[in-house]
Amino acid sequence: MRRSRFAPCAAWAINLRHFDLRHSLRIRIIAVLSAVLALGAVILGFAGWRSASIAAQQAYDRMLSGGAIQIAENVYVQGGVVTLEPPVSTIAALAAYDLVFYKVVDPRGVVVAGYEDLASEAKPEQTRNGVVIEDGLYQEQPVRIATVAKQIEDPAVGGWVTIVLAQTTEARRALARDLTLKALGVIAAMSALALLATSYAVTFALKPLARIEREIVERRPDDLRPLQTEPPVEVRNLVHAIDDFMRRLSDRITLMQRFIADAAHQIRTPLAALDAQVEILSATPPSRQKAVTVARIRERTSELGRLTGQLLDHAMVIHRADAVAMTPIDLNVLAKGVLAAAVPLSLTREVDIAFVPAEPTPIVNGDAVSLREALGNLIDNALKHGARSKLVVSIGADDGRAWIEVADNGGGFAVPPGDVIRPFAKGPHSIGSGLGLAIAAEVARAHKGEIAISREGGTTRVRLLLAT
């Protein structure tokens, strides 16, 4: 088989995408450290250059000062005239590194030796206290000038002799460059070692993340257990957040699986009954019995429509619990609007409908759509399966909680209050789906509340408690 020549390029592109420079911790850390080391190298290099320049200056200045003093010691008076016996060894030592110039001026101001145009800016009172060193320019070359004065004790001459010694600065600069380059070499070597050590340290430090990645990749899609790899302290909170997310995802998947299983079971029954009625209708000749069968089909179809609608409402409530932002809601306004929309214009029996608002009106943070759905189900449940002649919707609040209560004078629930809020929980002769109270309970939990059911004095009360 012929191998494509573009395969290595494709693999390289995949690796490059995997090694995204913008999102790589390794590259970020190394880049930041490189910038810090580069800045530090510049600062240290400048400091090294300054230190090398000062060290070279001080070393050559000591030699220059010593040379000026040596020349001063070789000045003497002979025949009433100031005379110099040049210290050859001293001048030779200085001249081995740079050009050297000197001048000796007697107390009269006459140059008795050296270069007459060599000048010094040092003041006499300074030179009489010791050697004065300064920068200067001689023969268009930068020089360092050492000036010192020597007092002549001979009464024939009497006064101060000034000795000026100058040396060019090329050797100083060469020494400073050499010291600086050596310092920069050490800095560069240490920086390279630091980068290598950092790269290794980052790779070593990220190994636990690679183990976590490997554990997640090797898992089955349905394995949502907490991660078993012990995370480093720095990413422990991240791993705990992932574990918590997987736990919530597992709970949600379990809830949806149970919901789908229950929904499939509940829908299968009315569909089978509807199919049987259709078969009966097909085999029945035109007669009164056929009208009864059509009525049953209509009833089953209506029941299936209600069940489908409530199943969709249940799924919507579960979804909105985590996906919708909470907003302030006026419970008086919300309950009044839901009550007006939920009560049909005609009922099969006389039922007194009452609404009791709260003063002042409670305000809760919640999802208005979910709360309307929950209250609508409570009212519909009370009208269809509870209220004989009276239904009251009331609003109330106490410390930290508000509630919407639906009360009726029906016969209560055919199953225990603890079971009645489970999906599809209903009595043996109930024709409902058993989802109304389950939807309300889901909405209450999403609002950090609960459903409270009580019966007292022939009145059944279902209270939707909400956190304020």
Automatic annotation (TrEMBL):
Main location: membrane
Domain Histidine kinase: 262-468
Reactions performed catalytically: ATP + protein L-histidine = ADP + protein N-phospho-L-histidine
Gene Ontology cellular-component annotations: plasma membrane
Entry's Gene Ontology molecular function annotations: phosphorelay sensor kinase activity
Metal-binding among keywords: no
Transmembrane segments: 27-49, 183-206
Annotated ranges, domain HAMP: 203-254
One protein family per Pfam: HATPase_c
Compartment(s) where it occurs, according to its Swiss-Prot or TrEMBL record: Membrane
Keywords: Kinase, Membrane, Phosphoprotein, Transferase, Transmembrane, Transmembrane helix, Two-component regulatory system
The protein's Enzyme Commission number: 2.7.13.3
PROSITE patterns: HAMP (PS50885), HIS_KIN (PS50109)
Keyword Cytoplasm carried by entry: no
EC class: transferase
Highest taxon in the source lineage: Bacteria
UniProt-recorded name of the protein: histidine kinase
Organism of provenance: Bradyrhizobium macuxiense
Lineage, opening ranks: Bacteria, Pseudomonadati, Pseudomonadota, Alphaproteobacteria, Hyphomicrobiales
